[in-house]
Amino acid sequence: QKEVEQNSGPLSVPEGAIASLNCTYSDRGSQSFFWYRQYSGKSPELIMFIYSNGDKEDGRFTAQLNKASQYVSLLIRDSQPSDSATYLCAVNEGGGSNYKLTFGKGTLLTVNP
Amino acid sequence: DADVTQTPRNRITKTGKRIMLECSQTKGHDRMYWYRQDPGLGLQLIYYSFDVKDINKGEISDGYSVSRQAQAKFSLSLESAIPNQTALYFCATSDSRRADTQYFGPGTRLTVL
Question: Considering chain A, what is the average pLDDT of its residues?
Answer without folding.
Answer: 91
